[in-house]
Amino acid sequence: MLQTLLDGRARTKADLVHLTGLARSTVSSRVDALLASGLITPAGEGASTGGRPPSRVAFNPQAGAVLAADLGASHATTAVADLSGRILASRTRQIDIASGPTAVLEAALSDWALLLDEMSAAGMPVVGVGIGVPGPVEHSTGRPYNPPIMPGWDRFDVPGYVQRTFDVPVLVDNDVNILALGEQAMSFPDASDLIFVKVATGIGAGIISGGQLQRGAKGSAGDLGHVRVPYSPDSSLQPGDERELEELASGTAIAGALRAQGLEAESSADVVELVRSGNVAAIDATRQAGREVGEVLATVVNLLNPSIIVLGGSVARAGEHLLAGVREVVYRRSIPLATQHLAIVQTQAGERAGVLGAAIMVAREVLSPANVDALVARGASRAG
Fold first, then answer.
1. Which of 134, 138, 177, 287 is the most buried (most CB within 10 A)?
2. What is the DSSP letter of 333?
3. Alpha-carbon gap, residue 155 to 273, rounded angstroms
4. How far is Cα 153 from Cα 67, in angstroms, rounded to an integer?
5. What are the b/e assignments for 331-341, b being 16+ CB within 10 Å?
6. Which residues contact 377 (CB under 8 A, 6 or more apart)?
7. Spatial separation of the C-alpha atoms in residues 317 and 326, rounded to whole Å
8. Distance spanning both ends of the chain, measured CA to CA
9. How far is CA 197 from the centre of its chain?
10. Cα–Cα dist 242/297, whole Å
């Protein structure tokens, strides 16, 4: 019943009978139970067909609060959202992910406490926590798995640590997956087949297929950075010199190529600065990195047939050069049917896309049929 109301439209009981095919008595009892749980709320009256106008009900996104965090290598954005995923309050601070899970998670817990204090009048109970981290995650357990830039985080029980403060479901995922969810929600809500590619210190992809985020068997789906790039005549590499994508196209790799030419470039930020200043060598290197990414994405396009590929991450913010390189190869190497209506675009979501994606991830879990039944049962118990 609730799934029918999650689109935000107010409906009468007669509308719900028509939409679900359930008996009027069943609809009435389930609507009453959802009202008792707080998950739906009265929403005025419908049009009268004679006699008393029927009352309408609608999903109540303020039935619970979701805590979200987007943890990066050097920053952390925390937020409080409602059950529709709408961000109600947020804050960003500088962190060092390498300082370890205890220090970073304590900072997030402290910021959530401050945000909740500021929103104390809202009276919304916390129903779940979502966290994105810059490394591989075994999603079923919420534990980072051998993350390369996160010393001390390997197999750390992130959900268990957070649940010492908030005894609610805690979901953890890698940052590219939550960016894909946030980008879809903010920019392409009607796209059911979307791939978000982050090109920064590392390279990864968040894959939404058939409207669902695809994590794979253990949570490692989308790890483009460790795919070997096939030899191409367009590449500066010699035949047989096949390397992993991150070795060729990440911000670190581009910076290394520029240093070999005598330029001062240590990081993705330096590459972006050089490109924006019009440095020809940096522009050429960034466009070539786009071609290398395109070599891998061409296979992905043939395999998954997305309608939209979104490029994000620090290197993508340098301008159109990375995007141009990707388009050049993907449109040439993928099959025509797969590229007929394929859009390859830069990210359009703002800096809060990560926390938005984390909030949506949790809201979908909390509002899944099994969990809704549990919330309704608790509501009935409280009423009793």
1. 177
2. H
3. 36
4. 21
5. eebbeeebbee
6. none
7. 14
8. 22
9. 11
10. 16
Query: What does the block give as tokens for 53?
Result: 């106008």
Among residues 195, 203, 165, 188, the alpha carbon closest in space to that of 69 is found at 165
**Closest C-alpha among 58, 54, 60 to residue 38:** 60
Long-range contact set of residues 257-261: C-beta below 8 Å, sequence gap at least 24: 257/285, 258/282, 258/285
Give the CA distances from residue 41 to residues 21, 37, 57, 85, 382, in Å, rounded to whole numbers and listed in that order: 22, 10, 6, 18, 17
Residues in the chain, overall count: 384
In the chain the beta strands, taken as DSSP E runs, fall at 11-12, 40-45, 55-59, 65-71, 75-82, 87-94, 126-133, 137-138, 143-144, 170-174, 194-199, 203-209, 212-214, 308-312, 343-346
* pLDDT tens profile 197-211: 999 888 999 999 999
Q: Which two tokens stand for residue 43?
A: 């929403």
What 3-state DSSP class applies to 305? coil
pLDDT tens column, 134-166: 989 998 899 999 888 899 999 999 999 999 999
Say which DSSP state 101 is in.
H
Structure tokens at 85: 């995923």
Question: Is the pLDDT reported for residue 384 higher than 60?
Answer: no
Instruction: Report d(CA 145, CA 156) in Å as an integer.
Output: 8
Give the tokens for residue 286.
């960034």
User: How is residue 94 written in tokens?
Assistant: 């500088």
- Sign of the Cα pseudo-torsion (365, 366, 367, 368, in order): positive
**pLDDT band at residue 124 using 50, 70 and 90 as cut-offs:** confident
Which regions of 135-286 does DSSP assign to beta strands (E)? 137-138, 143-144, 170-174, 194-199, 203-209, 212-214
Residue 380 pLDDT > 70, yes or no?
no
- Cα–Cα distance between 24 and 265 in angstroms, integer? 68
Residue type, 1: M
**What crossing angle do the helices spanning 251-259 and 268-276 adopt, rounded to 10°?**
70
Structure tokens at 100: 């370890």
Distance of CA 240 to the CA centre of its chain: 36
* Global confidence as pTM: 0.88
Residue 23 three-state SS? coil
